[in-house]
Design a protein that fits this description.
Blueprint: H1 3-45, E1 54-58, H2 68-72, E2 79-82, E3 85-88, H3 99-103, E4 109-113, E5 120-123, E6 136-138, H4 148-165, E7 174-179, H5 183-194, E8 199-202, E9 218-220, E10 225-227, E11 231-233, E12 237-239, H6 240-253, E13 258-259, E14 264-270, E15 273-278, E16 283-291, E17 298-299, E18 312-313, E19 326-330, H7 334-344, E20 348-352, H8 363-374, E21 378-381, E22 384-389, E23 393-398, E24 404-408, E25 411-414, E26 418-419, H9 421-427, E27 432-435, E28 438-441
Parallel strand pairs: 6-16, 7-8, 7-16, 8-13, 18-25, 19-20, 19-25, 20-21
Antiparallel strand pairs: 1-4, 2-3, 4-28, 5-27, 9-12, 10-11, 14-15, 15-16, 17-26, 22-23, 23-24
The structure holds flavin-adenine dinucleotide.
Residues 95, 140-142, 146-149, 151, 179-185, 202-205, 209-211, 214, 216, 219-221, 263-264, 292-294, 296, 298, 424 line the site of flavin-adenine dinucleotide.
Length: 445
């Protein structure tokens, strides 16, 4: 064969091979993009697409689709690659690990809070963790940055700054009262002990904070946390029980007790110190306050007879452990519907809702609850409100004057919304601003 013809054949074969590779690559990219597009459609239907707090924002001009962000994220399907660029899918499931931010080789990701459409309210805090009110400090998720390890770090640093801020001459009962016994409050308490402060930790529920109030066992920590008076904790993947035992052990070892079931209702500045009023009616005075109250707020109570009983709860913790019970769920929002659906598999569930129809539900929840009503899986009492909770029943009023319903009952879950921490902060004089997509973590370019 002529060398020229031979060369033409070789080059043509190489060109065809390259073309095949490119076509296969492009078709795979198209298939993958389609899958991500479908996930986005589903996320929108489930109400998970629009971020509610911290979330990654990808700069499409810098993204070169390495996929490093997806591989690094400990959660699932928060990011995906569509048309050659990383995009968010279930942005509202992001809890702010920041692993995507660090993994991206082209620094195309920032971690932002709020969106143009949906702002997020954040209190003013300076670099010393102090608010605009002298003597009131903030640590943990309330300041905008989520995660256990960040809360622990901030709790410790805030106490160091609080010590520096002490002024002589005030005769308060405490040097410092830490409000909230989540990771930020626990760490702050240990640091306060290390410095021999006269301090107290108060908590509206019980030790642990937000992470213990969600029906999810797995806890991921992308970096070790350094707990004061305890040392480095290298638990990368753990569960609620292990973490709780660890915190209890650290507190016990240092003889720190927490004033539990003590909700602070108001903080009032008084003669250069603060008076804290508790829901139960008592009050305490302190030189400084550390707010480690997170961002979830306080569940709203119904204020009906019999509400103070062990069988009444405002959060569903371990649904899989509850079986064979007569349960009432109160409320018509997504949390109520999701809890009722989870419980209905192994229990007899009645849902009481004060309005005539559900509105503003996530489309998926709306579909599921309508199906559960149609198949009789859940008994829904519209236009009803509990009036009295007894040991084995719930009494309800309806929109028919004089009518009273009586439903057999072992457990009652109330989802009547919550009091946001912002109201509590504003009452104490702490300034709040709305953030519309501001970057909390970004690369300096
Ligand atoms: C579903 C879910 C899963 C998560 N998973 C992880 C994970 O795997 N890894 C991770 O690192 N992070 C995770 N997080 C984030 C983590 O839980 C939070 O960032 C962290 O708990 C914040 O700690 P904190 O101490 O600032 O506040 P919180 O943990 O929210 O604690 C605040 C405490 O203050 C109390 N409080 C509030 N108001 C008052 C008041 N007025 N009086 C008295 N007490 C009050 C509350 O009852 C609460 O116990 C998750 C969050 C959620 C929602």
């Amino acid at each position: 064969m002529e060398p020229l013809v031979e060369n033409i054949i070789i080059y043509s074969l190489a060109a065809v091979l390259c073309l095949v590779v490119v076509i296969v690559y492009l078709r795979k990219q198209k298939r993958d993009s389609k899958k991500v597009e479908e996930k986005i459609v589903k996320a929108k239907l489930d109400g998970m697409y629009e971020p509610v707090s911290l979330h990654p924002v990808v700069d499409p001009n810098s993204c070169i689709r390495t996929g490093a962000c997806i591989a690094a994220c400990p959660e699932h399907d928060i990011l995906g690659v569509k048309d050659g660029k990383a995009v968010t899918i279930n942005a509202s499931k992001c809890i702010g690990h920041g692993a995507c931010f660090h993994a991206c080789p082209t620094e195309a990701i920032s971690l932002c809070i709020g969106t143009e459409k949906r702002g997020v309210e954040l209190p003013h805090v300076n670099q010393n963790f102090e608010t605009n009110v002298d003597g009131i400090f903030i640590a943990g998720e309330l300041g905008g940055m989520g995660l256990i390890k960040n809360a622990v770090e901030q709790g410790k640093q805030a106490v160091d700054n609080i010590i520096k801020s002490f002024k002589k001459g005030h005769q308060a009962e405490y040097d410092l009262i830490i409000i909230g016994a989540g990771p930020a409050g626990i760490s702050a308490g240990l640091q306060a002990k290390k410095h021999n402060l006269n301090f107290l930790i108060v908590e509206q529920d019980s030790l642990g904070g937000t992470v213990f109030t969600f029906p999810r066992q797995k806890i991921v920590m992308t970096a070790p946390m350094d707990l004061p008076l305890y040392g480095k904790v290298k638990l990368f993947e753990t569960n609620k029980q292990t973490l709780l035992e660890l915190w209890n052990a650290a507190l016990d070892k240092n003889s720190i007790t927490i004033k539990e079931n003590s909700k602070v209702e108001a903080i009032t500045p008084e003669n250069g110190q603060f008076k804290l009023d508790f829901l139960k009616g008592d009050s305490l005075t302190t030189k400084t306050v550390l707010l480690a109250i997170g961002r979830r707020g306080t569940p709203r109570k119904l204020g009906v007879q019999g509400e103070v009983q062990e069988k009444v709860a405002y959060r569903l913790l371990e649904p899989e452990d509850i079986q064979g019970k007569d349960i009432m769920v109160v409320g018509g929002g997504d949390s109520a519907i999701e809890s009722a659906l989870l419980l209905a598999d192994n229990n007899t569930v009645t849902l009481s809702y004060r309005n005539e129809v559900f509105n503003r539900l996530k489309p998926k929840n709306s579909e599921k609850i309508n199906e559960a009503i149609a198949t009789g899986k859940i008994n829904v009492l519209f236009n009803s409100s509990p009036t009295n909770i007894t040991k084995d029943a719930v009494y309800l009023s309806t929109n028919v004057p004089g009518e009273e319903l009586n439903v057999k009952n072992d457990l009652i879950y109330i989802f009547a919304g919550g009091e946001l921490p912002t109201q509590f902060l504003q009452k104490a004089g702490v300034q709040i601003t709305k953030k519309f997509g501001d970057a909390i973590l970004k690369h300096e370019k």
